[in-house]
Amino acid sequence: MAPSIDVSEFYARKSIFITGATGFMGKVLIEKLLRCCPEINKIYLLMRPKKGQGTKERLDDFINCRVFDKLQKLSPKVFDKLQVVPGDILQEDLGISIQDWEELQRECQIIFHCAACVRFDMFIRDAINLNTVGTMKVLKLAEGMKKLEAFIHVSTSYCRCEIPLLEERLYPPRHLPQNVVDCVKWMDDDLLGYLEPKLIEPQPNTYAYTKSLTEDLVSQYAGKFPIAIARPSIVTAAHKEPMPGWVDNMNGPTGLLVGAGKGVIRTMHLNDTYLADVVPVDMAVNGCILLAYITAIEKPKEIRVCNITQSGLNPITWGQALDMGRVHVQEFPFSVCLWYPGGSPKSSRVQHLIAAFFTHILPAYFVDLLMFLMGKKMFMVKIQKRVNYGLEVLQYYTTKEWFFKNDYFLSLRNKISKQDNEIFYTDIGVINWNAYIRNYIKGAREYCCKEDPSTLPQARRLQKQLYYLDKVVQMIIYCLCVYFIYYYVIRIFS
């Protein structure tokens, strides 16, 4: 049964504090709240100060992002509701002034804690300080808020990678977060680097490890104020809002699609039959908004955990996603390409390594050799090493399969009205994956690579030229192979 108050009405006259406002989810969250909850009182944004920029200049830069284009046209005055709070998640008390600290504790009703480092390979001390200690400081701020109605901590459904079926509940970590925080304070880098693999085991990286630690830290505040933990899976480009295909980073699947589309990635290690549990960023944000709404209304004493995941309801495999991407990159090719898009995923690591040697490493050294002979700066080997490293990090998630229980996430749409379900949509089952991947490629080209749609005709001509060049090179290689085989066979039998 839906509450008597709708979502927009609930957020009316509320003041909200958001960390990670400049991140991928943070931007979409702010845009959605401003556009769909126009009576909201104020949104406080924690932002690091930039040298030579005042608060107003920092905010002006932020709202000039493409994600706010629709709002700039329809309701530019709504940006007056944004207030920058200069600070830094790494500094003591978030680097917030006493005046701002007191104002936040006096005025705020809702916190969305989205700030986190999503680099999987970050050194453990840095990951702990950003993801765990940073959350500790935000919790300290929240504890003194007089009107706090909901604290939403954004975690990840990959916080416990050793568990094949992740339920919507808290899992005790192997180590107490306070103990780990104390350790990284006094250990030097060499000792921490030596201990890191054993410390984070069985997690694959420091990102997953610190996320699991931080969930336990948040759980220690149960009963002090209403708390919910949002666990989105792999967050990808927007389904519908603020515009189809909007994405602003090259992380995860986006980098994979762009790299393959530019001909930089010709092989990858993944199981193409495994499900890709991806969630469009607008649906992940809608889930967080509804989670705060339900948490504030129901005021649960225990912590609610919400796995914002696909969970096989509208399944798509990694192989299907890549096949669709190959089709649509022909329609929206990139203006700058290394080679014609091609290659294929390999379920065998050995096959992948062999293919990477011939399609990634050798061509990179060949290009750099040509650059050296022409007296120009060599760059290709360096780029290829970065690409291969990125693939190594990503392949952990593309060669394993996880399952997530998401009953509570699914129940959110039953707790709101039909009208609110249309505005704050979370039904992943309605996504047409072919149309979604098409918009994804188009969005990555336009928003990530900053390529104007007017460049498409030229990019298509380049794509056609690269296609014929690719065929010519393949023919030459095949002919050389046949020649050498024939030559040595003749020598053996003559």
From TrEMBL:
Membrane topology according to the record: Multi-pass membrane protein
Domain Thioester reductase (TE) residues, every copy: 18-286
Listed SUPFAM superfamilies: NAD(P)-binding Rossmann-fold domains
GO biological-process terms attached to the record: long-chain fatty-acyl-CoA metabolic process
Pfam families given in the database record: NAD_binding_4 (PF07993), Sterile (PF03015)
Family under the similarity heading: Belongs to the fatty acyl-CoA reductase family.
Parts of the chain that traverse the membrane: 353-375, 468-489
Reactions catalysed, as given in the entry: a long-chain fatty acyl-CoA + 2 NADPH + 2 H(+) = a long-chain primary fatty alcohol + 2 NADP(+) + CoA
CDD domains: FAR-N_SDR_e (cd05236), FAR_C (cd09071)
EC number: 1.2.1.84
Top EC group: oxidoreductase
Keyword Lipid metabolism applies: yes
Entry keywords, A to Z: Lipid biosynthesis, Lipid metabolism, Membrane, NADP, Oxidoreductase, Transmembrane, Transmembrane helix
Known role: Catalyzes the reduction of fatty acyl-CoA to fatty alcohols.
Gene Ontology, cellular component aspect: membrane; peroxisome
Protein's recorded name: Fatty acyl-CoA reductase
All copies of domain Fatty acyl-CoA reductase C-terminal, residue ranges: 360-451
Localization in the cell: Membrane
